[in-house]
User: Fold this.
Amino acid sequence: MSAAAKLETRSTQELRRIVLSVAGWGLCAIALLGVIFPLLDIVGVVAGRGITALSFSLFTQTTTGAANGLANAIEGTFVITLFAMLIAVPIGVGAGIHLSEYGKNRLGSAIRFMSDTLTGTPSIVLGYFSYIVFITALGWGFSLLAAAITIAILIIPYLARITELALQQVPNPMREAAYALGATDGVVVFKIVLPAASGAVITGGLLGLAISVGETAPLIYTAGWSDQMWTGHFTQSPVAYLTYVIWTFINQPDEHSHQLAYAAAFLVMLVVLAINISVRLMVKRTKFT
Assistant:
């Protein structure tokens, strides 16, 4: 083959690579826009409508029917999330510790399988199960306790798996050195391993917090709805929450209901955004420390 032919073949191959590269990057850009544009549209609409609906009375007045403020829903979301995390964190982190340190057996495999199955279960199914068990069978009625336990059950599998993976990243020589110095299992786990993986564990907790704030379906079956503030009773007392306002009030015919729905959506979006930013900062800090 002559030099001219070789040069022509090489030029054709380079041109082909350039065309394929440009086409590939073009498809990537289109896919990126396909993800970003709907997100920006949702955020823009919710923020635009939600900010205009914010007022002082929104945080001080309770919801009467579809009027007034969201004080009861804000408080209800806070207490449900608080008690759900109080239940889920010890159980989830404890399960993760067991799976990481002592779960290399059939029991550990069974726990992982059940955890993965529960993770893939639709939340509305979990809510219906809780309705049958807590609301009907145990007679608790729509209540904070039923809602908190249901959300905790939803969060626990995520916390367990994230904690397990985080602890597995801790080098074994750290454990061996502690055992060589005479440390017990409890000291190794809680003084050496868990602090070393604390950043990732806290990140898992924050992700669970974001899940609990944004859930609706399980709470419809367990928390019910109340126009008033939480009474302080754990059973036989429905609780308000922000996602119910979004789900219900947007379908009402009056404009004030729509404003409450957009305001509630904006508050939930702000909370989830703050949690996600915290997760990013935590991951970055853990990565470079």
Notes: The longest strand covers residues 63-64. DSSP finds twelve helices and two strands in the chain.
